[in-house]
Amino acid sequence: MNIYCQFHHHFKDILVCKLTCPREFKCSEFQKLYSEKGREIRWVLFKYMEKYPDKEYKIILLPKKGRKPTMKQYICMREGNIELLTEEELVAKTKKGEFFQSYFEVGREMEISIKLVPKKNTAPADKKKIVKKA
User: Fold this and answer.
1) DSSP of the chain, one letter per residue?
2) Which residues contact 31 (CB under 8 A, 6 or more apart)?
3) CA torsion, points 115, 117, 123, 124, in degrees to nearest 10?
4) How many other C-beta atoms lie within 10 A of the C-beta of residue 17?
5) Rounded to 5 degrees, what are φ and ψ at 58?
6) Would you list the domain boundaries of the chain?
7) For residue range 24-71, what is the model confidence (pLDDT) as tens digits?
8) What count of other Cβ atoms lies within 10 Å of the Cβ of residue 100?
């Protein structure tokens, strides 16, 4: 699956965008294609990672910009147990006398970004001196 890169002005494989491009979330072309074919792109990415398990990947969680939560949710902890509750459920449990040790508001929807980590031991290519013959 190829995409035209407006920044570099050439076509490239979608995996190159997904795994190496720092403009992944800013690129309108990539975002348009990802909204249409996100499931296929994730599948191709999964197959790539499965095929090359020895490569080092960096997993990054990024908040989605401009997205407000549609429903407030809370992570509630009590004696090692965790419950995810809506605001209405939390109010109802509190009114019944159920309390938790800790409460955390789930604040944002997140996106996951997977990037290849460049190898550190890559040596620059040797430049051979060009000798002109007279």
Assistant:
1) -EEEETTTTEEEEHHHHHHH-TTTTT-HHHHHHHHHHHHHHHHHHHHHHHH-TTS-EEEEEEEPTTPPPSS-EEEEEETTEEEEEEHHHHHHHHHTT---SEEEEE---EEEEEEEPPPTTPPPPPPPPP----
2) 25
3) 20
4) 21
5) -110, 125
6) 1-55
7) 878 888 888 888 988 898 888 888 888 988 888 888 777 776 656 566
8) 19
Question: How many Cβ atoms from other residues are within 10 Å of residue 88's Cβ?
Answer: 10
Task: State both tokens at 85.
Answer: 């509750």
User: Which residue type sits at 2?
Assistant: N
The single-letter code of the amino acid at 124 is P
